[in-house]
Amino acid sequence: MNAKTKGYILGAVAAATYGMNPLFALPLYENGMDTDSVLLFRYLFALPLLGVMLKARGRDFRLQRREILPLIVLGLLVAVSSLTLFQSYHYMDAGIASTLLFVYPILVALIMAVAFKEKVTLQTALCILLALCGIGLLYRNGDGSTLNLTGTIMVFASALSYALYIVGINRTVLKNVATLKVTFYILLSGLTLFFVRLDFGEHITVPDRWYLWGNLLALAIFPTAISFLCTTGAIQYIGSTPTAILGALEPVTAVFFGVAVFGEPLTPRIGCGIAMIILAVTLIIAGGNITTYMIRFRKLFPKLPIRKP
After folding, report:
1. Which residue intervals define the domain EamA in the entry (predicted)?
2. pLDDT digits (tens, 9 = 90+) for 165-174
3. Which secondary-structure segment (H or E) carries 285?
4. How many Cα atoms within 13 Å fall on the side-chain side of residue 217?
5. CB 3.0-4.6 Å disulfide test: which of 74, 165, 168, 258 passes with 264?
């Protein structure tokens, strides 16, 4: 598997696992936990997992002096993105919030174009437009009311923070640092924000039912450790903009769990929206050459007969 293919796979996994946030967070809210406590445990439980992975791969925890400040800044950006997204769940449906979060690929493309003079190709622009049309079809408000302004602002703040993180990690000295180490210290830095907001631990709330600890652990594993690790790896393999566009899979994941877990109907409009998003992601991966990509994809399955061009 070449680096480009590996990057696309990592980007897809990162997006899909990040879309699991509502699945594990909402039951915790329903049982009285506040946003900062949920996120504190989420980051806290993820750190040992990453630490074990670091040691298992024979890497150390040492940092160069020039790497410390970027890690602190990017860690706070990730923490702010998590905080505003999770707070938005109190003001609107989690599926809608996850859907609105998808504006971050547009912000990434704009930041890269304005700040770093990166060329936005016609294909990239059309794929963003196609994905946004799919998101528009997925968008709905159950009772037909207008979206809450506070919640909407929080989601857009989350999107901007996440876009700045995606750009920053690809444009700093961290680009050449081991993925596991970067992810570990970004979460460690972000953890301090929640600790401070909880008055240095004095106002932490904990689950009152044993099985809810499983939700906290799942938050640490899937949308935190796995998602951030795969995001960082994808950015290093394929760059910021393709990784951001692959984030189209996040709302698809939210819809899937809405249908499978919460019994939401899968209407033709929703199905069409999902198809448009998948098509946009496929075109980005193909890079304008579907045939070449399909050959690479089939090589992942050696038992299949492959006809070389």
Report:
1. 6-139, 150-285
2. 888 887 777 7
3. helix 268-286
4. 6
5. 258
